[in-house]
Structures are given as C-alpha cells and as structure tokens.
Amino acid sequence: MNKLVPLALAAAVAAGGYYIYTRQHTDALPAGIAQSNGRLELNRFDIASLYPGRVEEMLVDEGSEVAAGDVLAKLSSDTSSSRVEAAKAQKQRAVESATRAAAEMKALAQRQKVAQMEWDNALELKRDDLVSDSEVRRRKAERDSAAAQVEAARAAQAEAQAAVNAAQAQINEAASADGDMTIRSPKAGRVEYKIAETGSVIAAGSKVVSLLDPADVSMNIFLPNGQAGRLKTGDDARIRLDSLNAVFPAKISFIATDAQFTPKAVETADERAKLMFKVKLKIPADTALKYNRLLKGGMTGNGFVKTDAKAAWPADLAVKLPK
Q1: CATH pick for 48-77+181-207 out of 3.40.50.150, 3.30.565.10, 3.40.630.30, 2.40.50.100
Q2: What is residue 157's predicted lDDT score, i.e. its pLDDT?
C-alpha cells in the first residue's frame, strides 16, 4: 500500500506540471489574440480528358513540378484522327467544286460582256434602221439570259465558298478535338496523384492527373462563437508550423456563416459558447510560391488571429520566414 503513495504523488506532480505548462502557454498570448490548431492545405485541382481514348504516354510523376501549358499525358484515339482526315477530304472536294464554280463564273461573265456589246451594237444599228426590231429584241434577250446565268453562277460560287468555309470549320473542330488528346496543365502546379496509367482506356471526363496549386496554401482553424464573431475577411493572421522555426503571414480569406457544431434546439449561454466556426487563413501567393517545396499539405501548426483590431502582434508572432 505504501508503494502506491509515491506513484500517486508522481502522477499528481506530473498533472500539476502539465496544468502549469498549459496555463503558462495559454496566458502567454496577449489580450486580443486568439489561436487554434490546424493543418496546411494546398488547393487541389484535377485535370480530366474531354474525350475518350487510350493513355499512350504519361509524362509526369507524382511530385513533379509543372508549368502552365506543360504536357501531362498523351492519349490516342482512332476516332479523333479519322475525323481530322475526313474533314480534310471534305474540304478538298469543296475546294474543287469552288474552283469549278469560279471558272464557270468567269466564262459566263465574259459571255455576258459579249451579249451586252451585241445589244448595244444592235441599238446603234436600229437608230440607222439597219436592223429590225426583232433582231434588237433577240439580242436583248440574249443579254438578259447571260446576266441571269451570271447571277446563278455567282450564287453557286458563294455556295461553294460557304462549303469550303464549313469544311475548314470542321477541320478546326476535329483538329481541336485531336489536340485535346494531348493533356496540358492549365496552370503551374505540383503533381499529387497520377490517376491514369499508360495503356489504360479512359472515358470522356475521366481524371488523368491531380495537381496541387503551390500558390494557394491555407490553414483552417476553428474558433468559438465569441472570437469568430469579431473577425472579418481580409484581417491579418499568422501561421506557425510545428516543424519549422518560422512564422508565416496570412490573411483571413473565409469565415463560415454556419456553426460546425449544432447545439440543441434551446440554446443556453453555455451552449452558444460551444459554437465553433471555421476560419480560413491563407498565406500570400508570392510567399507560398517562394517556399512551395517547403510547404506541404498536412503539416500541423497553429493559426493566430486578432480578435481586437487594435491589438499588436507579440514579438514571437512577428513574421519570420525560413532562411
């Protein structure tokens, strides 16, 4: 029985020491500053294929840094390639038809010119009574017929040119679809997951690669109702990570409008005090990019905010970036 006394005494001392340590570190924060723990998050965006196809080649690995426009993967599809060839063949036929229409238009225009000259000549001869009225009417009819043929040929030529333009549009569309079989990154990022593998067949809309945006780094913290209610988006904040001897600047980019923990139907003062609201702290993009290989999703730490705008950051929360 006496052996248990030292053990109980040691446990009491340890508990007391933990209480004192916790109280000292809690009290270390000046008035107007609140903190909560959280984890770093990098915004993720998935790259998908617009069209079905077989993965011919994956050009990135997990962890690879990519720039905007870099090729991530290449897909192959007989359908998209055949559409391009069919569109080119259709344009060739349309061009040939337009060429014939242009040649016919040129010949008819020349015939119209001759018919016009013959009619004008007949009118001159008629004034001297050298030709009959019927001859004048005949030549006028020939002139009118030639003019009508020119108008018809002009319409046919315009239709043929429209067919050429439509065929070119189909080529552009097919080529764009074929070009989309090369999957490119829309922005700079870091490959988190390779979702597709070489040789696999994917459907339209299937994800190929998951990227992390190194410029979009944030930490979600949760604060009680009394503290969150004093914050507003755009306020200064600080992030201190457990694994780095550094303090990163941040801004409050989001404050939840709904509590994360729903109280009972009847809210007492104590229950309202238990309401917790999510607050998102975002590191400036230029800072995040500068330390993009150092900042990783899942890193634990603490986020600090000012619940009083007039409060000053203590010395240990001054911005201190890694060297």
Answers
A1: 2.40.50.100
A2: 86
Q: Residue ranges per domain, the chain?
A: 29-43+214-317, 48-77+181-207, 79-179
Q: Model confidence over 232-284: pLDDT tens digits?
A: 999 999 999 999 999 999 999 999 988 776 555 444 555 555 678 999 999 99
Whole-angstrom distance between the N-terminal and C-terminal Cα of the chain? 57
Tokens of 182: 């090369």
Residue 277 phi, psi (nearest 5): -120, 140
- Rounded CA separation 215/290 (Å): 9
With a cut of 70, say whether residue 202 has pLDDT above it.
yes
By DSSP bridging, strand 33-48 and strand 300-306 are: antiparallel
Helix, strand, coil tally for the chain in percent (to 5): 45, 30, 30
State yes or no: pLDDT of 23 exceeds 80. Answer: no
- The Cα 251–Cα 43 span in angstroms is 16
Q: What is the CATH number of domain 29-43+214-317?
A: 2.40.30.170
